[in-house]
Amino acid sequence: MIVLIWIVGSYFIYNLSDRSAAMLSENYQTVESTKFLIQSIDEIKNQQVKYFFGDRMQFDDGSIAESQKIFEQHLLAVRNNITEEGEKSIIDQLEINYRQYKESFERIKGNKTNDSSIYFQELIPEYSINRNLIVELWDMNMDAISYKNSLLKNTAHRAFVYISIIGTICFLISAFFLFRYPRNIAHPIGELIRGITEIANRNYSKRLSFQSNDELGELAKAFNTMAAKLDEFEHSNLSELLFEKKRIDTIINNMNDAIIGLNDRSTIIFSNTNACKILGLTENALIGKNAPDIAIKNSVFQTVVSGILDKPVKDIKDFKPIRIELNGKVKYYAREILNVIITKTGEYDPVRAGLVIVLKNITHFLEQDEAKTNFIATISHELKTPISSLRLNLKLLDDNRVGPLNVEQKGIVQALKLETNKMQSLTKELLDMAQLESGNIQLNLQPVNTSVLFDFIMETSENFARTKHIQVDFKIEPDLPPLYADSEKTAWALMNVINNAIQYSSIGSKVQVIASRQENEVVFLVQDYGKGIDEKYHDLIFQKFYRVPDTIETGTGLGLSISKEFISKQNGRIWVESSPRNGSRFYISLPIYSDFDQNQPS
Ligand code: ADP
Q: The whole model's pTM is what?
């Protein structure tokens, strides 16, 4: 609109300025020239008066020539600026008359007459004709100026009218946009905002009602399509989700394991058929209930959730299988906890959403394990008598009183004795292990004099150390208090660790055994300078039958696991510090008698 007004205004302004410039050059200059023409012709006349009526001696030819020159210059100027009709003929006449007027004076002057009447008879009439022609020329141009001026006025008036009309139209259009458009735009945008809020609140049935053929109309259509698709998506999703939920429920219910799910507020959110059976509760009595509340009323559930409701899952210690009688049969279940960690939609940090307790039916494995333990116990027990008999017979064979043996035979008997000894210690270890597993181990806990125990292991280990040329240094802190332990089992464990130290050291090496008090315990340290044990095996070597890979020395892998059982059953600890090629430090710690006695009820 502004550009339109600018164009129209510029057009008229240029038009006006063009015309006034034209008027100036066309007529005003001629009017100016006529002024000079009159002045100069009057000057010529005055000079002539001086010539005829004044002192002829004072008459100046130069002044009249000067006026003539000015006259002729301006005559030429008006000739070159002929713009009006009839102007040319006036100028033609003026030229002819002027020439005649000039020549008449020259002629009279040449005659040198003193007759002044000639001036009135000849020169004044010619002067009057010239002057009248100039005045006529002046009038003509003044008329033209006044005519053109009226034309300019008309143009200016027209410009004013046009610009006013256009300005008014522009103003009306602006006013229309100003009042009409905000409403046209604001109304749909307001509805759109309300629509988006509804969608954000999951009201997918919301639709926009405004219709138009512009971008807002397109926007409304796109919004309605989106809402319809979301609506459809939600409904289809919900039914699919329900279907999937049923399927998962069915799978969980048909699983052999018992499964219970808790949310992050310890509310039971699901429990499968087996879990309900084990707990002796219906699904309705469990789901939606607070786990600690159920634990108070149900002892099985209390065992199942023991140690998990109040601490993070990773801190939960080993869980002993639970024994449950179902339909007259004893069943054993092992517990597994699955921590449910999720990252919620639109969030970045994972949070604990609850946990799932899986109770695995391990009855079958325990039965098989029991059968294996019984079998090992029976076999090792049965082997004890024939091995003892073998040892006795070998002893007899080696006795010169039975009959002399040659050197080779003696060598064979020695080898047989060695193998029989190994067999005997293996059957002993197996029997011990079977007893441990079946829980038949009998501990004879009583105060044990630490130095007596220390002397015993010192003597016992000497023989084996000698065969490997290993020097064993024994050092005991003076006045150690008595232990509260089973002396036989403790000696067995210590001997096993010392024998290992000798066995896994190279010939000629050294082993140190040190007994000292540390707070309420006596700690036995067995240090060797043998091949050492990589840290990754430190826990594994205390498991049954585990041997560090590439161990070439003979052994069963049972010694340390039995030692651990013996020591931990006496409330002691056994552990190792070692690294490859730096030897090993095995520690056995046991509680001292006085402290133990004070803490125990009699
Ligand atoms: P065994 O000695 O009969 O194999 P153990 O249970 O006593 O069984 O030991 C388990 C394994 O630990 C051994 O096979 C051996 O690889 C490793 N081990 C035990 N003591 C030492 C030691 N002092 N130095 C190096 N390795 C050892």
A: 0.49
Nearest one of 76, 55, 61, 39 to 106, comparing CA atoms: 61
Three-state SS at 516: strand
> Ligand 1 centroid to 117 CA: how many Å?
169
509 close to ligand 1 (CB < 6 Angstrom):
no
Alpha-carbon dihedral angle through residues 548, 551, 553, 556, given to the nearest 10 degrees = 40
Place of tokens 């001292």: 592
Gap between the Cα atoms of 562 and 540, Å rounded: 13
CA of 429 to the centre of ligand 1 (A): 14
Which tokens sit at 418? 């060695």
Distance CA 146, CA 138 (A): 12
- Could you give the CA distance from residue 558 to residue 436 in angstroms, rounded to a whole number? 12
Q: Which two tokens stand for residue 62?
A: 């130069």
pLDDT in tens, 473-523: 999 999 999 999 999 999 999 999 999 999 999 999 999 999 999 988 999
Burial of 118 (0-12, 13-18, 19+ CB in 10 A): middle
DSSP 298: -
Ramachandran angles phi, psi of 73, nearest 5°:
-60, -45
Terminal CA-CA length for the chain: 110
Nearest atom (ligand 1) to Cα of 496: 7
Residue 86 and residue 140 in contact, taking contact as beta carbons nearer than 8 Å: yes
- Grouping H, G, I as helix, E, B as strand and the rest as coil, residue 351 is strand
Class of residue 34 by CB neighbours under 10 A (exposed 0-12, middle 13-18, buried 19+): buried
Minimal-distance CA residue to ligand 1 atom 20: 500
Encode pLDDT of 121-142 as tens digits: 889 999 999 999 999 999 999 9
Is residue 300 classed as helix, strand or coil in its secondary structure?
helix
Cα separation, 522 vs 39, in Å, equals: 148
CB atoms within 10 A of CB 533: 22
Name the amino acid, one letter, at 52: F
- Tell me, rounded to whole angstroms, the distance of Cα 373 from its chain centroid: 56
Report helix, strand or coil for 441. Answer: coil
Closest CA to 258 of 220, 295, 305: 305
- Backbone φ and ψ of 3, nearest 5°: -65, -40
**Alpha helix stretches (DSSP H) within 119-263:** 124-200, 215-254
